[in-house]
Give the backbone structure.
Amino acid sequence: MIPNILTTVRLILVPLFAYLVLGAKNLPLAAMIFILSGITDVVDGYIARHYNMITNFGKIYDPFVDKLMQITAVVCLCLIGLIPTWLILFVLCKEVAMIIIGGILYLKKIVVYSHWYGKATTVILYAIVITVIFWQNITPLWTTILFGFLILSMLFSGLAYLVDIIKNHDEKRVEE
């Protein structure tokens, strides 16, 4: 299906982004790859929902590739000194927790769909990564504000998902 093909394209973009940041040191091109990844994520989601091409495989594959790109971007930018280590630790802890919780819920046949707050956090992360790449001389005050905003957004969306899961867990069960 087309959405899963687009997700595979995004998967291929992950090591390309890492190479462009760490190997080729071509940050503008890496930013373009990162933006392309975000665009294909939006397009594959639209196609999957609009044309009823949602698959169980895609429900796992798409968020996995999204998380992989986001984690790769944060780690690579930390390795070249654009993002502090503490931010990686926060992002990794949040993403690992989401993966573990998602896996447990999947085993219990509970599906948690994306909501506006999760999508907003992704947009914020993408915007901050692109900002950090293109404006490397941004002041420490502004980077602290940006990273703080990202953390608040991640905390809010994580808590909102947790509340949603607790309140609606019986309604989210999927029949086999």
About this structure: The chain has one domain: 2-168. The chain has six helices and no strands.
